[in-house]
Amino acid sequence: MYLNKELKSFREAVSAIFDGATILVSGFGGTGGSPQNLIKALRDHGAKDLTIVSNTGGLASVIGFGSTKDERPVDIGILVENFQVKKLIASYPVSPSASKKIAFEKAYLEGKAELELVPQGNMVERIRAGGAGIPAFYTPTGVGTVLSQDKEVRKFNDREYILEHAIKADFALVKAYKADKIGNVIYKGTSQSFGRVMSTAAEKTYIEVDHIVDTGMIDPNIIHTPTIFVDGVILREK
User: Fold this and answer.
1) Which letter, b or e, does each residue of 88-116 get, where b requires 16 or more Cβ atoms within 10 Å of its Cβ?
2) What is the pTM of this model?
3) What is the DSSP string of 15-37?
């Protein structure tokens, strides 16, 4: 018999996160695929010296992305501003606007945070490898660039490849569309791009969802992340 994995508060979901933890945070471009309430709870929880693995470094204060006025989006930038982030592993750690630097850019330029820049495909594959128990793999992406510095290079069939190591984390904070009470999850849109792999590559995975339904109400054929990878689901605040 499966346990009910529905949590009652976002505070409960992040309560075990410790100083120095590595955390996978889902999201693609905007805040729609980002676990905004889990991020806010982590800010309030206060764990520090975190390594955050995320596609972006956050957003600048812009109109759009769920707001009708110029305000600070809720993303990992609020953790940076609260001096909780020691290192970011990301593919797009800068603002799309040169005139509006995001919090991480400012912290990095001031020497207050570290950055590991990873091509997007490599990052997804590193996370997937971590979830699959594969320690490392070779890829041609990044060969001959600054991203290949200090990495092992091998030649296969007359083509050079660099060795990339898997990413595993202590926690994953993920946004999804729907879950049942025992933690079977489905995604919508771009949230699939990181949420599905991140859910498999962490010791503990907590998923913020738009809907929670009774067990058995999700067709098994469309489940993206099965309960075995999920430690808790929590309903998004409306």
Assistant:
1) bbbbebbbeeeeebbbbbebbeeeebebe
2) 0.92
3) TT--TT-EEEE--SSSSTTS-HH
Report the C-alpha gap between 118 and 122 in whole angstroms.
6
Domains of the chain: 10-134+167-235 (3.40.1080.10)
Question: What are the pLDDT digits (tens) for 163-216?
Answer: 999 999 999 999 999 999 999 999 998 888 899 999 999 999 999 999 999 999
pLDDT of 70 reads 46
DSSP secondary structure code for residue 92 in this structure: B
Exposure letters 5-43 (e unless 16+ CB within 10 A, then b): bbbeebeebbeebeeebbbbbbbbebbebbbbbbbbbbb
